[in-house]
């Protein structure tokens, strides 16, 4: 059975790119463009991995990660944070919120897929 990955990204082009790359690798993908819908969609989809943009309109990816890690159904799902903010201390703050992986944009496909595979290998079944 294909691993399920939810992509939370408000930028249409980035969301499509991430989803197309993941689908080409055989993953089942659930794209989410609105962060306000992310946790409800995650509860319904129950992904093996969540890829989370940090700068979202209306709610931050940090809040969503904290919300997922506080949710009994979602807390064990690994989160890969992807952000254009790569300043000093940003990775620490993102990891403190509960992210299991971190990539700075622009993201290259090789490191992106390596991070996805690494997190899925360590994810609960």
UniProtKB/TrEMBL annotation:
Residues modified as 4-aspartylphosphate: 53
Family matches, as SUPFAM superfamilies: CheY-like (SSF52172)
One Pfam match: Response_reg
Gene3D superfamilies referenced in this protein's UniProt entry, alphabetically: 3.40.50.2300
Sorted UniProt keywords: Phosphoprotein
Keyword Hydrolase included in the entry's annotation: no
Phosphoprotein listed as a keyword: yes
Domain named Response regulatory: residues: 4-120
Protein name as annotated: Two-component system cell cycle response regulator DivK
InterPro entries (alphabetical): Bact_response_regulator, CheY-like_superfamily, Sig_transdc_resp-reg_receiver
BP terms from Gene Ontology: phosphorelay signal transduction system
Organism field: Novosphingobium sediminicola
